[in-house]
Amino acid sequence: MQAQPGTGLAFFYFDIHDRAKQATRGLLSSLALALAARSENYLPMQKLYDKHAKLYSPTEDELLELLLELLKGFEQAYIIIDALDECDEYHQLLDLIKTIHQCQIESHLHLLVSSRREQDIIVMMEECHTAEVQLSANFVETDIMSYVQSAVGEYRLKRWGHKVQELIREKLISGANGMYVDCLQHIRDI
User: Fold this and answer.
1) In a domain, 132, yes or no
2) Strands of 109-113's sheet, edge to edge?
3) Which of 7, 78, 180, 190 has the fewest CB atoms within 10 Å, counting from its CB?
4) Domain check: are 96 and 147 in the same one?
5) For residues 3 and 1, what is the distance between their CA atoms, to the nearest angstrom?
6) CB neighbour list of residue 164: distance below 8 Å, 6 or more residues apart
7) For 6-32, what is each residue's pLDDT tens digit?
8) Helical H segments across the chain, by residue range
9) What is the pTM of this model?
């Protein structure tokens, strides 16, 4: 897709372990930068840069306006926002998604948003008349098992021996419920 001229692609992952990746400002900045890098029209970004003349950062409204302007320059544009539920500014983010989703009506914008099933997100997404895809527990469990197997086999955990590694695998897989990354991060820090 990236090789196709006229196609924009931007993605953002909200990360609970990275403060800069928990706010809507980070989302807007990242998406705008990714689209600007693929765009042939740098004018909207240049105007915003000149307006602030290095004195202060643009507002979130200005970043949103820039994002929407950049989206208009593509024949097809794809935005992927992952882990919505890990954003600190939850309700502000939901309003932002609605605004971006309204641009999707123009048919050249394709928006994919992922999250755990939380009531606020479910309600907001229903308001946008979106299609929902739920991953089956078997599919997720297989993915988790594969990831855990490779992560537990890493060098730092090999020193603990086979029995301890097996116990770690068993506990992570049985108690994961989609949250295996947090558990593995703690183990990797040991």
Assistant:
1) no
2) 7-13, 76-82, 109-113
3) 190
4) no
5) 5
6) 157
7) 899 999 998 888 877 888 899 999 999
8) 24-38, 43-52, 60-72, 90-104, 119-127, 137-152, 155-158, 161-174, 180-189
9) 0.70
Select from 101, 127, 153 the last residue of a domain.
Answer: 127
Residue 2 belongs to some domain of the structure: no
For residue 48, is pLDDT > 90?
no
Split into its structural domains, the chain has a count of 2
List the one residue out of 145, 130, 133, 150 whose CA is nearest residue 180: 145
**Pairing assessment for the beta strands 109-113 and 7-13 based on DSSP bridges:** unpaired
- Give the length of the chain: 190
In a domain, 14, yes or no: yes
Confidence class of residue 51 from pLDDT cuts 50, 70 and 90?
Answer: confident
Instruction: Clarify whether residues 30 and 69 are in a common domain.
Output: yes
